[in-house]
Structure to design on (164 residues):
């Protein structure tokens, strides 16, 4: 697979929710979004199968988002992978790799303007959890409420995973 090729795209329709502190569905002009609180670190999961043509390299995760009401401040995200390999981890417990940070980025001066921010994650146990072609996996997305400064909810529109 060539660098930059898309491996997976997740929209709010594919969201999987933890037992507590989860992002919630909402709409913006009939577009489905996931809303993340400004003070409580809320989480969402997406599951997929890594395409067979994935070469095993670094991954770039892009999050498309908007601010629900903020016109100043920054919004950032935490991203991590969990490999679900045949004969691997016991799925009764999480086994996510180290969370990577999408640096908090200044929101648009107009509420509702969509932005796309990303982080490149190094292949291997601490980055991509050693996901290989054909493996099932989960990706966890959280708003980085400890480091961003925008008030009000952040709206997640989509997540794209590309080969770096």
């Amino acid at each position: 697979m060539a660098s930059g090729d898309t491996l997976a795209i997740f929209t709010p329709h594919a969201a999987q929710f933890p037992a507590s502190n989860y992002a919630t569905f909402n709409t913006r002009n009939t577009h489905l979004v996931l809303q993340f609180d400004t003070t409580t670190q809320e989480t969402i999961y997406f599951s997929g199968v890594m395409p067979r043509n994935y070469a095993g390299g670094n991954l770039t995760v892009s999050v498309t988002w908007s601010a629900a009401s903020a016109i100043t401040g920054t919004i950032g995200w935490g991203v991590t992978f969990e490999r679900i390999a045949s004969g691997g981890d016991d799925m009764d417990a999480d086994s996510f790799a180290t969370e990577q940070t999408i640096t908090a980025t200044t929101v648009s001066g107009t509420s509702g303007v969509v932005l796309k921010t990303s982080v490149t994650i190094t292949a291997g146990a601490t980055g991509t959890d050693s996901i290989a072609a054909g493996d099932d996996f989960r990706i966890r997305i959280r708003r980085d409420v400890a480091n961003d400064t925008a008030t009000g909810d952040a709206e997640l529109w989509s997540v794209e995973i590309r080969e770096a």
